[in-house]
Write a structure and sequence with these properties.
With about 120 residues, the chain is an alpha+beta fold. It is about 30% helix and about 30% strand. The protein has three helices and four strands.
Length: about 120
């Protein structure tokens, strides 16, 4: 049995992002109140170009309506999602903060450009 190969940054950076999102959901988001809900799902998607891991984080029932400035604010977690993950891991990201919802989608390549599996 051969050891698992993994992109050197994939585990740590992606795990840190999920921990950061969980902490923020508890402090400021849907988990701050008992009516809030959090859904975190993942799946593998095969596209014409590559194979990707799709992570989707949805919070519903966030108390308080963010102002236009809040919705565009770039804290550490959002910067990590929108800038560091694409730079370090070739991720595609989408971050939408609405009146009482947050939706974050992160798509990470599972294979390298030459077709080798990054994890597995």
């Amino acid at each position: 049995m051969s050891p698992k190969r993994q992109h050197p940054n994939l585990g740590g950076l992606a795990e840190f992002d999920q921990l950061n999102q969980g902490t923020n959901a508890l402090k400021y988001g849907a988990l701050e109140n008992e009516d809030g809900r959090l859904s975190a799902t993942w799946r593998i998607e095969d596209t014409k170009q590559d194979r990707r891991l799709l992570l989707e984080w949805i919070e519903r029932g966030i108390v308080g309506t963010p102002s236009a400035t809040d919705a565009e604010r770039r804290g550490y977690g959002r910067t990590l999602i929108e800038q560091a993950l694409p730079y370090a891991l070739s991720a595609r990201t989408k971050f939408d903060l609405g009146a009482n919802t947050l939706r974050c989608v992160i798509s990470l390549p599972v294979t390298t450009q030459d077709g080798r599996e990054m994890v597995g």
